[in-house]
Design goal:
Elements: E1 6-7, E2 21-31, E3 36-40, H1 45-48, E4 54-58, E5 68-71, E6 73-79, E7 82-87, H2 93-97, E8 102-107, E9 118-119, H3 121-124, E10 128-131, E11 137-145, E12 152-157, E13 166-169, E14 175-179, E15 184-187, H4 193-197
Parallel strand pairs: 1-9, 10-15
Antiparallel strand pairs: 2-3, 2-8, 3-7, 4-5, 4-8, 6-7, 10-11, 11-12, 12-13, 14-15
């Protein structure tokens, strides 16, 4: 049986081009008196443990080097739907307080290796989607939506107007071939999907 498709980075925002950064978590408020700090991220806690070092920067910063780091991530613990982070050398509430509301970032090339059937959604942006049966170019992936079910890939449809979007479920039965290196995704849509999830037509 083929493995299910999984996205490696719900909500993770990469910067384009080689040498860019990926936002892997966003820090919240401090917890306790020993330097712990709450955070929100899309990875399981164990995946953060694979990281050797991270950087921190103000939220929304899109260019230039990270402002703090590198820092060693001592631990990332799951807690009531959130994460609790600890960084080496940060052992007081005052020290952790300086990190509140910052983003945790890493260079794109430092992202952990994903298991078979997992893909970083950011790596799919720019891929051309092609209809499996007809060979028709359906559009280029421009982003994604996470609405609680399968992730929906957003495509700018071929020949569409600016702002039009075609939504394709990121599911094994539909996205049957995925090759980010080649910039290509083969889509086998069930009958009616393209019409249902395509841009609205009309006057």
């Amino acid at each position: 049986m083929e493995p299910a498709l999984h996205a490696g980075d719900y909500g993770i925002v990469p910067e384009p081009g080689a040498g860019g950064w990926s936002v892997i978590a966003r820090l919240g408020k401090t917890r306790g008196l020993k330097g712990e700090i709450y955070g929100d991220g899309s990875w399981p806690a164990a995946r953060y443990a694979e990281l050797k070092q991270v950087w921190l920067r103000p939220a929304g910063q899109q260019a230039g080097a990270a402002t703090i780091g590198p820092l060693k991530l001592v631990s990332a613990t799951a807690y009531k739907g959130r994460l609790i982070f600890r960084f080496e050398g940060v052992d007081s509430i005052e020290a952790a307080g300086a990190f509140e509301r910052l983003e945790v970032v890493i260079p794109n090339e430092d992202r952990p290796h994903l298991a078979e059937g997992e893909f970083y959604l950011a790596d799919l942006v720019g891929c051309q989607a092609v209809h499996r049966r007809t060979g028709q170019k359906l559009g280029v992936v421009t982003g994604w939506q996470d609405c609680g079910g399968p992730v929906l890939l957003e495509l700018a449809p071929e020949g569409g107007r600016q702002g039009d979007a075609l939504l394709i479920p990121f599911a094994r039965g539909i996205c049957v071939e995925i090759d980010p290196a080649a910039g290509r995704i083969v889509i086998d849509p069930p009958d009616g999907l393209l019409e249902l999830n395509g841009p609205e037509t009309g006057a």
